Every structure is written in C-alpha cells, then in structure tokens.
Amino acid sequence: MKSVNVAELKAMQESKEDFQLIDVREQYEYDEVNMGAHHIPMGEIMERQGEISKDKKVVVHCRSGARSANVIGFLESQGFDNLYNLDGGIMAWVDQQ
C-alpha cells in the first residue's frame, strides 16, 4: 500500500499540489479535529465512492491509519490505483503541529 507521511502531506499542501484528502473517521471525530478533508465516514465509502477522484492523487486518513488502510484495500478492489494512506493518521498530524 502506498503511503505519505505528515511532512510529505504538508509539502503537498504548501505547494498547492492538486490532490484530494479524504477523512474516513466518524462525524464526532471529524467535529473534534479535522484537516479540512472531504469527509466520508468509513461506513459510507461503498455508497459514496463516486465522490473520490480517480484522476489525481488521493490521500486517505483516519485516526491512526488502520481504518484508512482498510478503506484503501476495499477501494483498490474497486479499481482505484491512486490512493495513499496517511502514516499515523490525524494523530501524527496533531503531534507534528
């Protein structure tokens, strides 16, 4: 599975790289802290996968990286090949702020 770390994600954001950031955590988690990502809770991925780009890099994250890895595994089985997991999830992001 392809991944990016927090430093790489920050560099992508700072350089205005064209990519999509997807947060697969639950609504209450997103409400507590978020990075401004497109919010699609893990349980809604199957129905809402049409909202995920197939034409550019997509970084998927959750709290620590486990749920996003599961989501990426599912989406890759659906034909996606442009997905990257955020190493350490939002916990790593918060730690490096």
From TrEMBL:
Species this chain originates from: Wandonia haliotis
Pfam annotation, one family: Rhodanese
PANTHER family xref list: FAD-DEPENDENT OXIDOREDUCTASE (PTHR43031), SULFURTRANSFERASE YTWF-RELATED (PTHR43031:SF17)
Name this polypeptide is given: Rhodanese-like domain-containing protein
Domain (Rhodanese): residue spans on this chain: 15-95
Lineage: Bacteria, Pseudomonadati, Bacteroidota, Flavobacteriia, Flavobacteriales
